Prior knowledge:
The protein is mainly alpha-helical. It has one domain. Helices cover about 45% and strands about 0% of the residues. It contains 3 helices and no strands. It has helices spanning about 5-15, 35-45, 55-70. Helix 1 packs antiparallel against helix 3 (about 55-70) and helix 2 (about 35-45) runs parallel beside helix 3. The protein is globular. It starts with 5 loop residues before the first helix and ends in a 7-residue tail after the last helix.
Amino acid sequence: MPKPDKNDIERLSRGESTRGRIGNRGVGHRLTQKERILFEAAKRNGFLKIPVTGIRKNVLNVYRLWCQATDRDFITR
C-alpha cells in the first residue's frame, strides 16, 4: 500500500473522497466536531490523548494514517 498523503488524510477525516484511494468503507474515518478537536491537538502535540470516557475508533484510524503520512510514531495515552 502506498504511503498516504496528508491532504488525503484531511479529506478522509471530513468524509470526502481521496485522490490516493486510501481508507475503507468498512472502517470509520469521518470525525465529529469533538473528535476533530482531539485529532488537531494530537497533530500539534505528537500524541493522541484518549479521554476517560473513550472515543470511537475513527480518531484512532485517522491519527494512525496521519502518523504514517508524516513518518511519526503512533503514540496514544
